[in-house]
Amino acid sequence: MAVKKLVIYIGYMNLKPIKYFVVTFLLIGATPIFYFWTLYQTELNAIQSLRETEAKHQLNYSQNAINEISSELSTSLRLLSDSRALLQFIQSPSLKNRALLESLWALTATNYSYISQVRFIDTDGMEQSRVDDINGEIKVTPIYQLQDKSQRNYFLYAQTLKAEEVGTFGIDLEVENGKVVIPLQPTLRIFTPVEVADERKGYLVFNLDVYEIIEEIDYSIDSHYNLEFVDLEGYYLASKNKEKMLGNLIEERDSFNLLIENPNLWRAMEDRNIHNFKDKKHFYAFNKIALGNGFEGSELYLLLTSNIKVDSSGTDHKLAFILYETIMAIILLVILSVIISRYIVKHRTTSLESQLALAALNGMSSIVITDKNNRIIKVNDEFTRVSGWKESEVMGQCPSIFQSGVHSDAFYAEMWQTIQENQSWEGEVVNKRKDGTLITEILRIQAIMGKNGKVQYFIASFVDITARKELENCLRELSEKDMLTQCWNRRKFEAEFSKLTNKQRLTPEVKMSCLAIIDIDYFKRINDQYGHDVGDKVIKNVARILQTESRSIDFVARIGGEEFAILLPNTSLKEAEVILNRLRVAIHLADGSQSVTVSGGVTDICDCGEATYKRADLALYESKTAGRNQISCFPSSEMDQIA
User: Fold this and answer.
1) What InterPro entries does the entry give (predicted)?
2) Count of CB atoms within 10 A of residue 498's CB?
3) By C-alpha distance, which of 188, 153, 166, 186 is closest to 66?
4) Residue extent(s) of CATH 3.30.70.270 domains in the chain
């Protein structure tokens, strides 16, 4: 009702009052509206940035999971190919040896849910032994049902492998006795040659269930993310939507291709320098990978998709609250502008007092008025509330008593030069309150001229934006911190590491700095035995000790699942080794239900970051191979000698 009356009143106002209303509204409303708009954009960008960062983290996690699965399968394949049971079966394929071999294979298939089949194929392409895992049930294939696979493409490819080489033949459909298995079963095959006394006897083959692999990886991904495998031609190899998979093999599905569905996304994926893409509806994170370091070939894209719409109730409430505040502020500004414009029309005068009152309505909440000698003669109640200074305490003082020491003398000299030239200045300033705490302000200073053209008064008005600045700083810190451990994250580490390497390159005479890489020993065993919750606690405890026991100048970051990096500036390699051993002992002696040890590698930082990181990683590897729970050093001088 009040708004309706206000609209009717404005409609009957003549042209002059409308002009005063518009000018007044613009003067007092520009800064608050700009403030709320900036606050809204900052919050929206922060939410979007958080969503994008989460998607990238999920993609990295999925890629690590794939690499871990590939590494485990590669290791298992090699171990089984060299097993005594297989050797005995090849030399003497008796029923006893066959049963022993098939029992070992059944145990392997049971331990890895994504292994659907284990086979030994001789050099002529004939299956000699085979174990299937069908929906969790182990089935041993009778001898008379073993098949000839000599004409299958993957067998022809297997014949090209060298001794001890592990190969993979991509993803295709499972075929039995020359017919495609129904229901369709996408399968990935990995194999390695089996040789006895340098004579090739055949090939050990794993068939991997693609559905099980993606289910294993997808288990740890948030529900609003969708993970898919895409081949180098744009066809879906694995997806939650099984109806669009394998368009390269199934004719009726050949339209399910990224090149057709989303050509802009596909162009971005083909660009090696781009790893994410955004359109109006979705955000995409992707990476080109091979199926594990142990396999040859079979490159594909890992594609993670999420809705770009902000759907978190907490973040939606924040944006809604900002919009609500903005609307209320606009209503108040309109009411205030109407009141002020009516007052101006009624009491318009050319007196200096009227000019001062009009200038005081320049849009800022807190106001300080000084005379031509820059001595305070008036402040308003909002100034007292924000700064803590009463009018009686600042009367006759110079505004310099509010200075925080953050700005230089040159800053204030430039400010006053601008005021003298333009009769006004506006910008962001950090001052201090009466209690000594800092306040960040959007400050405007206006010079009021007399009839003689000389300055009579200065009016300073400002808005407190301290809370907004603190929010910006908090969001910046969140983007650089690891959520689990509160250590710095890898992105922050790479930035700090780059600074040290650049400093070493530009000023090589500076004191030595060191890089250390620390890894928790047998962490996978802890996860497997006690669960991921305990594993997370172990990671947090190790991170806490590294942060509390390291020096204040040291930089501690979590750069991987159980891997940490420490930058030790102005520290010799000998000093760094002492510090790291102290940290290692502190972790080993810490209370806990699990006995935790760490291994580490340390090196001095040279002008090449990649070489420095490689040396630290090699030193870590040396600690691991030497028995763990120790620190190894790899000076750059030793690398020079090796080179």
Assistant:
1) Diguanylate_Cyclase, GGDEF_dom, Nucleotide_cyclase, PAC, PAS, PAS-assoc_C, PAS-like_dom_sf, Rev_trsase/Diguanyl_cyclase
2) 11
3) 188
4) 480-642
Q: Is 160 exposed, middle or buried (0-12, 13-18, 19+ CB in 10 A)?
A: exposed
Q: Which residue has the tokens 């001898």?
A: 143
The two tokens of residue 345 are 């029309």
Phi, psi of 454 (to 5 degrees): -105, 155
Distance CA 370, CA 395 (A): 9
Angstrom CA distances, 437 to 267, 385, 422, 430, stand at 52, 14, 32, 10
The two three-digit tokens of residue 250, written as one number: 């199934």
pLDDT at 169: 80
Q: How many CA atoms lie within 13 A of 202 on its CB side?
A: 21
Strand residue runs (E) in 362-410: 366-371, 376-379
DSSP letter at 594? S
Is 585 a residue whose pLDDT tops 70?
yes
CB 241 within 8 A of CB 151: no
> d(Cα 235, Cα 261) in Å, to the nearest integer?
10
Q: Is the pTM higher than 0.85?
A: no
Catalytic residue among 54, 562, 563, 577: 562
Secondary structure class of 232 (helix, strand, coil)? coil
Positive or negative: CA dihedral 39, 44, 47, 48: negative
Q: Are 367 and 391 in contact (CB under 8 A)?
A: no
* Domain 23-348 top-level CATH class: alpha beta
Q: Could you tell me which of 523, 629, 529, 518 has the C-alpha nearest to residue 566?
A: 518
Interhelix angle 466-478/15-81, rounded to 10 degrees, is: 20
Which residue in this structure is represented by tokens 């948030």? Answer: 222
Dump pLDDT digits (tens) for 28-56.
Answer: 777 888 887 887 778 777 777 777 777 77
Q: Is the pLDDT of residue 570 over 50?
A: yes
Instruction: Establish whether 382 is a catalytic residue.
Output: no
Q: Is the dihedral of CA 257, 258, 260, 266 positive or negative?
A: negative
> Using CA atoms, how far apart are residues 622 and 631, in angstroms rounded to an integer?
9
Strand intervals (E) in 433-491 = 438-449, 455-464
Q: Domain 363-465 has what CATH class?
A: alpha beta
Q: Residue 256 and residue 229: Cα distance in Å, rounded? A: 13
Q: Which residues make up the CATH 3.30.450.20 domain(s) of the chain?
A: 23-348, 363-465
Helix 573-589 to helix 532-549 angle (10° resolution) is 130
CATH of domain 480-642: 3.30.70.270
Strands 598-604 vs 514-520: parallel, antiparallel or unpaired: antiparallel
User: What are the C-alpha distances in Å from 10 to residues 3, 13, 285, 327, 342?
Assistant: 11, 5, 53, 19, 11
Say which amino acid occupies 584: R
Q: Is pLDDT above 90 for 474?
A: no
120 or 593, greater pLDDT: 120
At 1-27, the pLDDT tens digits run 433 343 344 444 445 667 777 877 777
